[in-house]
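Worked example 4.2. Below are the chains of a multi-component assembly; read each line carefully before continuing.
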Amino acid sequence: MPRRRDVLALFLILLPWTLLITFWHQPLWEQPIRSEISFCVLPSRLRVTRASKSHQRGFRLYESCVTENKRITKANQMRYIYQRPPPWSDTLPALHVITPTYSRPVQKAELTRLTNTFLHVPNLHWLVVEDSAQKTALMSRLLENTGLNYTHLNVETPENLKTQKKPRNVRIPRGTMQRNLALRWLRENIDPNSSHKGVVYFADDDNSYSLELFEEMRWTRKASVWPVAFVGGLRYESPKINSQGKVFGWRTVFDPRRPFAIDMAGFAVNLQLILSKPQAYFKLKGVKGGYQESSLLQDLVTLSDLEPKAANCTKILVWHTRTERPLLVNEGKKGFTNGSMEV
Amino acid sequence: MPRRRDILALFLILLPWTLLITFWHQRAVNSLIPVPKDNRTRASKSHQRGFRLYESCVTENKRITKTNQMRYIHQRPPPWSDTLPTLHVITPTYSRPVQKAELTRLTNTFLHVPNLHWLVVEDSAQKTALMSRLLENTGLNYTHLNVETPENLKTQKKPRNARIPRGTMQRNLALRWLRENIDPHSSHKGVVYFADDDNTYSLELFEEMRWTRKASVWPVAFVGGLRYESPKINSQGKVFGWRTVFDPRRPFAIDMAGFAVNLQLILSKPQAYFKLKGVKGGYQESSLLQDLVTLSDLEPKAANCTKVSRESKSS
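Applying the procedure described above to all two chains together yields the following structure tokens:
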């Protein structure tokens, strides 16, 4: 009997040690991750709703215990740094970026370089709203291929209200219905009582954005403002800031008496404010030129609520660039046209 | 004595099992970021990236989490790899109001591309503070050069054959820099590409050109008065002509950003430069390429030249 006990004891000793040694040689807990140039295909779900609590993405990196194994250590570094888009964080407020867009030859080019910028920004939720009766295949493919966290919407501006021939007060400024649809989507899909923190920004698809801009706007409490280049016929327009760091006016040539003499890309609004004032939308008709931004902001904030960003409005972090229409004069000549090539 | 043996035996049993259970438990609570798709073929074998992420034990310590995140945000561009060929991207630039805007969005694209060496050449007598600051703030691997195109050769009033096409002297300076600074006998692998600062580039494009053996070509949108121009590819996958309306009989009827050249080829033919004068409109690219390659050397990219991943535009 002692013999059996000895054998049993020996077995119970040898087995776990054998397992341990095997695992140390062939780490089963090491998951090979390829972090080279990866076109990160993340599901296009919205991460910002009520589900966010379950996304406990707190993490920390361990230096591998086996530090002479440089491969693992290096992998930790490599993996950590480089992923598109950056991993979602539970501590950073989400940036809900609303981009109206419409079909024209340069659309895909504009959106390509815009997404190349967005892919650097953590916790970005992109609401793309097409001015179309149906979602186009081009947009659907593009959005899916980026790997960004997006919501794809569409609403068509009625033809008779689009045309330049109509007087301004009958025309709906381009992009208005699309931006309003995105605001409505946010109001219908995000619970104001949840702990979700976010900021809403309107980003047109032909502007240029620095990465610093997104980090400036991220901590907006009510509404934040900053200078914008190439608007109002100036090198830049800007809010005027007094010595207390408050906005008291607008450095513009064109109608500085507007309630908010600021370009669409020059402000961001805290999401809670948007959700708590569900009547606030961009006015559709009867909006004088340059007053569109005011038509929304005057229902949300007063001048004293505004938070100046970009080093007290002394730096340019966004440019209202415009894209020239490409010359397509040779299309159709010598039988040249190939509709199947997507540009 | 039997007692001691029993204790020893018990210890030798409990210890390894405790270790095993600890390891298994840690593995079970592992939460990993989804594995990205890997399109890389040649380099991936040597990059077995084992790692794991832990849920922070102290998840309520938001500061640590935030620090990790912030550390992440600032780590751009991707770390340098020893296996990927380098992309030497040559960008001539000049002062004008939209310069900083154009370069900002260009760098936002470049910051995704591994092993990119950016040669920026200003058309100026001196390096400008704007450019120096911009380049330093991006964190990109760059070389900052400058050469001023003589005023009398710039002006539009001169006939075309007396004028130097914009950017030519700057591109040539960059080529000379490469020839003077990279040893052709080193093991350095690279590809040279000319990227103007007002175009739009997809990220896919850079991975297409990276494996260029001699010279590769692909379609370009919004050039030559067309939605796109493209090389013509035959059934053997060889370039036999050019799908352009404007002068398709040019030796290389292709836009500046529609081709890339292997660095070794550039280094081994040190006389090959863009011709400065007497270049007919649209022939600038040919003036360089005809000294480097023949039509049959060209490697079609972008799915045999059926995809557009680069568009030419000015704002």
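Take a moment to check your reading of the output against the notes. The mean pLDDT of chain B is 83. The first helix of chain B runs from residue 2 to 28.
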